[in-house]
Amino acid sequence: MIVLVNISFKKYGNNILLVKKSFNILVFIICVFNLSFLILLYSLNFIKEKRISFLDDKNKKEILVVSTQIKGKVLSLIDKTLVIPNAKLTLIHKDTNIVIDVLYTNSKGEFEYKLDRFLKEGGNFELKIEHPDYKTYTTDFKVLPFSIKELEIFLQPKKYGR
After folding, report:
1. In a domain, 62, yes or no
2. Buried b (16+ CB within 10 A) or exposed e, 92-113
3. What distance in Å separates the CA atoms of residue 60 and residue 121, rounded to the nearest whole number?
């Protein structure tokens, strides 16, 4: 929206200067508002957020999914209550064979990653989990857009068995 103004002023001494200054300030404010509005519209063009909701079976409540995520927990195979902090996770996009990111589990053995900037449609991924005390584990999975993929990964200690 562009505002064009054409007003003629009659000279009435000092009053005309006051009217011109007020008018200029008003036009400036309108221009700043229009510019702000255009910047907002431009930035909103890049936000392509799709809202999909589903019913969570555990909590029996509706969840609104606004991004594609993978999340989960890394545990010990021997003691399934033992979480593995600082496990290195390498996320690879299988369709392009590109390493997307390397992340680490937190102190509770949990990880979470948003895939939106890499995922326009469905995709196949590989997750490689490494820890100095455990054997390396690799898993493949498929992710659909605007979904949450939850993984529970169990690592075998290096000292245990072969």
Report:
1. no
2. bbeeeeeebeebebeeebebeb
3. 28
